[in-house]
Records
---
Amino acid sequence: MRARRVRSSLRGWGGVAAMAVVCALAALLTLLLPLAGSHDDRAGLGGSGVADASRVRAEECENPQDQSLSPDTADGASVQAIKDRGHLLVGVDQNSLGWGYRDPNSQEETVELEGFDIDLARRIAQELLGAPDKIRFKAIPTNQRIEAIESGRVDMVVRTMTISCTRLEDVSFSAPYFLTGQQVLAPKTSPVEGYDESLKGQRICSAAGSTAYETLEADRKAGELAEGADISTTVPNQLDCLVRLQLGEVDAVVTDGALAASQAAQDPTVALKGRRFTTEYYGVAMKKDADDLVRRVNRILEEYRQDGGWKDSYDRWLSPTMGANSESATPPDPKYR
């Protein structure tokens, strides 16, 4: 097995009944949210961008988090199309605590999306269009993030999306904005201890199209996954794995440690088991060859790190579940190709 590193132990609120209600509401909102402001959603995307764009081949890719373009403020076809439209289209999550979600305890008449990814998306809208509210959010399931970009439904996805060599064949990414890694979530009373032999014969849930499933599948083929571990259960949205776990339909969940931390905070009967066993980075995903937009987002990320906006957002949304001293509590240092 691979070497594994730190985790944060968590406490929180939740339960099977509560989560079932939340997930049902989330499913309904997923159907409704994309309808809001849907006119011209495909307009003006996919400009040719800067001429130095090149398709990254998975077999030639190393350190995918270092493959993005250097920052710039020049407007090309992709940025201009967004400005002409007057609003930014962003694919997000709406049921991940601390990342992109609607607070069920909010006293506001209209419950707005909030979280770390939502803050970042609004900052991008502020810098591109002059106001954080010049944005239209689209609820995108985990397994539809790339399709949403390729089809032009969104300009970008800001949704805990790991930068990977495979994904770089289909979309472009910004420089990394968050450090994470795969981790195991299981009931506190479970014999599962982490990503090790304690998973022998256990039923494991992951999201379809996620790096978690890719890791599980690759390790099974390489003989590095515990014998008899069943990875056949996949779901469209990662949070659905928590519900499967609560209902006893699976024995463990493998997902990003950052998301697992939020889920452990939602249900005090589950906990992170063991340390993270991969090193991964989230990035803003955009259409292939939209180089001007990638460069502009990278410039925005540089300013977001430097002026304290990133840290303020982390402290507000993620520190309660991941800890103020987590290895993820500071933004990654970007490298560019």
---
Amino acid sequence: MKFARLGAPGSEIPVLVEGERHFDLRSVTSDVNGDFLSGEFRSQVAAAHAAGSLPELEGASDLRIGAPIARPSAVICVGMNYAAHAAESGAEPPKIPIIFLKTPNTVVGPNDNVTIPRGSEKTDWEVELGIVIGARAAYLDSPEEADAHIAGYVVANDVSERDFQMAVSGGQWSKGKIAAGFNPTGPWLVTPDEVDVNNLNLKSFVNGEPRQDSNTADMIFDVQTIVHHLSQYVTLEPGDLILTGTPQGVALSGKYPYLKAGDIVEVSIDGLGRQRQEFVAWEATR
């Protein structure tokens, strides 16, 4: 199944996506949130759809696409999870997952404009596979238990400001990761049965020119390992979002210029959809 949220920020309508058709889920849930995802949401939606109680949403194609999940309680990120990206960053591949945090207000729609922070000279893109938690996870005994706690997957752009991340970080990366809107997410939440999460192509483009091109098979730590590892340190709640790292091909490598106002970034993952953001100057939004 594919789920989306359509409409103006703060007023999104939850929908089931089937090809070009969008079915209104408000008879089943008020939103695609932790309460919804922690239940038997797939069987509930399937039953409602079979009963004809999910009307097709008129004018869906004209509505803004919001993030496919309501604001999560936590956004937890894995760094340096592709060996080639670690190398282009001047680091050795990690022996254990490197973790940092983004704030919930970074999560925005996949095609929303992204504001370059005031004073930024090194705003960067990062296509990433995102995991959405569907059941509380704490102290899982093995990676094999992780699948039962996953509601689905999303494509995300882990936008980063490298000077804030590296030069003025004080040793923590989050300063360069937490500007409002720095995590475009979606267009869809896709349930695990729809994709082979360990074999998905990831790509990014800037102004139509290719940048990243890799596959989730190249991750150092796979999805199940990440969820198990995180559960030893944090209680993951339904609706939480985990970003799993980015492959090589970002501006930090020195091969490409950093983003400037007017640049268009597109990121995609097979089966999870495609995003498009225009980057705009901070002054232009105030």
